[in-house]
Design brief:
The structure holds 2 protein chains of 2 kinds. Chain A is an alpha+beta fold. Chain A contains 17 helices and 16 strands. Classes of the chains: A alpha+beta, B mainly alpha.
């Protein structure tokens, strides 16, 4: 009886241990923690006229690709891209995962990828990550591959420049991503403003925004201009700093340069805008919450995808686009123009295959497809003329102006710390807690302490 | 024979508790030890080297960390206090009500506790919206001034606290209800016979008899409140102007967006020490094991 009891006890314990271990362990999913996950499908035979270089042994290979965006359009586009890639390389399976557009969430995902050894082979990144992730050594040097690339001379110079970190070519530009000051022509007409003559200077913007605002008592029910209450990536703020003449960050000496008079002047102007009570509180990073996107503002600075989304949801509303805002008309202004780039993981076990995917994404076929789908600007010199003549020529003209006069985030390793302190300075100034000078000095002091 | 029986039953017991302790060692003790070791390094996902107490020294001058400690303490005190008071109040009210409506109401109040904090944070984001949110609509209907709840540094932390109280109140109410139902009715009858009014019965019978439950709620409530993170990250990202950043939010920011995992680990150790002190104080003064002689 005692022996039976013993045996039962031991068996029960072993069973519980096995359950525990099976609960802990799990099949390693090649897709990590995807929000949505696509499997590239092997298609039919390669068209002999388009036969391209295959991996030497032709063995089936699976590579991971993380792309920006989680909308239906993004997923469909990537699916199409992968399908056309598989027509050339049927033995390479691409597993694609979308990433949130919020930079901090992307960083978390990438860090989790590093720690769990599930970092993707190919990754679409934003400009700020060239510095922050480049510093960590996440990316492979693409120069050896570029040297053998037949289309290397067709790529925009800026697409190369934006992807360099400390002289190393760690990424290539997929498309520029300008933030364009967009306005509703119907609101302009209603407010008695000329819908075909938008503001071109800060003073003109301020006047227009005041006239466009509608209030019920003190409460703004229709904003003249989207002035964000929170601007954690400084996408709204930096163009004003640069247009005023500030370098913001000295990228050559890797030092902050935002306590100059130009930055102070820029923040003072934004503070004036905020005090006019012409906006509805929102977070710049949360695009869907933007009052303009919800039909509650007349002017906003939007990305191309946001403009397209607004036009799709509001086909009856005609939009106009500001020229790049100048401070006072005496010097050209500077817009915010980020870049989306593509990079290869330094830890990738399939670098040759990863390069083939990058090459494919930068082919004229895919670049033009992206333009047709999202109206995004091209990065190939041979496509310039078709782009200017394609679709909404007014918007395309504005896009090229913003790209030519645009500057993105600095590629320094401490860009996230810079964002953290300067965005707090921005909030302190627009809420009247500190003067622009004091807020910027405090931010610089804190930033320098951390950099050191 | 007796000794072999004892050994046998001891071994049985150890075998049965072994799975839990293996789980505890792997998922609690081991990560804790690794975290403490990491706190003495400058690990940044790629490189690691020993830096001694440098991280802890930096914490002493890190203003942002001090702000997060202050915010967290405010959150803990107000959330736990009001959750207990309101939970007890609801429990007392529901204990008296015997209809089916009371049971339904009990279930509805408990529901927020079992919902995902992230989902509820999204809902409260909408509720607090300055233009179209329900909170401002109610405030205006009552003739008061609406506010930019999550965009105003004076109100943002309070808004998060209200949300925290709302989420926990059902759970505390349930625990207090269970405690109330365990109080023998004859104690109240005897007190009533002796002329004690409702308030005195509450003060001298209900509160002392609920002490073990209150102690448990206090310990678990304080520990959970110190770990506040999801609603802060979703609703305010620590802003505006760092008015809602908490210790765990700082740990997350330092570790996962600034790649200073060693520094984040040091902050986590500080959090551990703070919670440990609170817990020990509670055990020392919380009179957990006090038995009432009701014989």
């Amino acid at each position: 009886m005692k022996k039976t009891c013993n045996l039962v006890t031991v068996l029960l314990t072993v069973l519980m241990l096995l359950n525990l271990l099976s609960g802990c362990g799990s099949e390693v999913s090649p897709t990590g923690t995807p929000q949505e996950s696509l499997l590239g499908e092997n298609t039919a035979a390669i068209d002999s006229s388009e036969k391209a270089a295959l991996p030497e042994d032709g063995a089936p290979v699976t590579i991971q690709f993380w792309f920006q965006g989680t909308s239906r359009e993004d997923l469909d586009f990537v699916q199409k891209c992968i399908s056309s890639f598989n027509e050339k390389y049927p033995n390479i399976t691409v597993e694609a995962t979308g990433m949130s557009s919020v930079i901090s969430e992307q960083e978390t995902k990438l860090n989790a990828g590093v720690l769990s050894d599930t970092y993707p082979d190919v990754i679409a990144i934003v400009l700020a990550q060239v510095g922050s992730r480049g510093f960590l050594g996440d990316f492979e040097d693409l120069q050896p591959y570029i040297n053998e690339w037949s289309e290397k001379d067709d790529l925009f110079d800026s697409a190369y420049e934006m992807g360099k970190y400390q002289g190393k070519q760690v990424a290539l530009g997929l498309f520029p991503n300008p933030q364009i000051y967009t306005y509703r022509k119907d609101s302009f007409i209603e407010a008695g403003l000329d819908p075909d003559n938008p503001p071109g200077t800060w003073a003109q913007l301020k006047d227009a925004a005041e006239k466009l605002t509608k209030r019920e008592g003190h409460k703004v029910i229709f904003a003249g201009l989207d002035v964000p209450s929170i601007d954690s990536s400084l996408v709204f703020t930096e163009p004003y700093m640069r247009s005023a003449g500030s370098a913001v960050i000295d990228e050559i000496n890797l030092k902050p340069a935002f306590t100059d008079d130009a930055t102070i002047e820029a923040l003072d102007f934004i503070s004036e805008l905020a005090q006019l009570n012409i906006s509805i509180p929102h977070d710049q990073q949360k695009g869907d919450e933007r009052p303009f996107m919800n039909g509650m503002a007349a002017i906003s600075n939007l990305s191309l995808s946001q403009i397209n989304q607004f036009k799709e949801n509001n086909p009856d509303i005609e939009l106009g686009y500001f020229p790049v805002l100048s401070k006072d008309g005496s010097t050209p202004g500077t817009a915010f123009c980020g870049y989306q780039l593509v990079a290869m993981s330094a830890a990738s076990k399939h670098k040759d295959e990863a390069w083939l995917l990058i090459e494919h994404m930068l082919s004229n076929e895919v670049v033009w497809d992206r333009t047709e789908t999202f109206n995004q600007p091209i990065v190939k010199k041979s496509l310039e003329e078709p782009y200017i003549n394609y679709g909404d020529s007014v918007l395309n003209t504005a896009v090229l102006e913003y790209v030519n006069n645009g500057k993105g985030k600095a590629t320094v390793p401490w860009i996230s710390v810079f964002n953290k302190y300067v965005s707090v300075a921005y909030e302190e100034v627009i809420n009247g807690k500190k003067t622009s000078e004091q807020a910027l000095i405090d931010a610089e002091t804190a930033l320098l302490k951390e950099i050191e | 024979m007796k000794r072999s029986n004892m050994i046998f039953s001891d071994r049985c017991g150890y075998l049965f508790i072994m799975p839990y302790y293996i789980f505890f060692l792997i998922f609690v003790a081991f990560p804790l030890i690794v975290n403490i070791i990491l706190s003495f390094t400058n690990f940044n996902l790629k490189t690691i080297s020993f830096v001694g107490f440098k991280n802890y020294a930096n914490l002493l001058t890190d203003k942002l960390f001090h702000i997060s400690i202050r915010n967290t303490l405010i959150y803990v005190v107000f959330t736990v206090f009001f959750s207990i008071v309101l939970g007890l109040g609801l429990a007392l009210a529901l204990n008296l009500a015997k209809s089916w409506g009371a049971k339904l109401f009990r279930g509805i109040i408990y529901m927020p506790y079992v919902t995902s904090m992230v989902s509820m944070s999204m809902v409260w984001l909408w509720l607090y919206d300055p233009t179209s949110g329900a909170v401002n609509a109610i405030v205006e209907a009552l003739g008061m001034t609406p506010h930019q709840w999550l965009y105003d540094e004076r109100y943002a932390l309070g808004a998060i606290i209200v949300m925290g109280i709302w989420k926990n109140i059902g759970y505390y109410m349930t625990l207090f209800l269970a405690g109330l139902m365990n109080i023998p009715a004859y104690l109240y009858e005897a007190a009533w016979v002796d002329g004690a009014n409702a308030f005195r019965r509450f003060l001298h019978i209900t509160i002392p008899m609920l002490r073990p439950v209150t102690f448990f709620i206090l310990i678990t409530g304080v520990i959970n409140a110190f770990n506040v993170f999801e609603q802060v990250n979703v609703m305010t990202s620590g802003g505006p102007m760092n008015s809602t950043t908490t210790i765990v939010h700082q740990i997350y920011t330092r570790s996962f967006t600034e790649y200073r995992m060693g520094y984040g680990a040091a902050q986590a150790v500080v959090l551990l020490v703070i919670i440990l002190i609170f817990t020990l104080l509670n055990f020392r003064y919380g009179s957990q094991g006090q038995d009432m002689d009701i014989g």
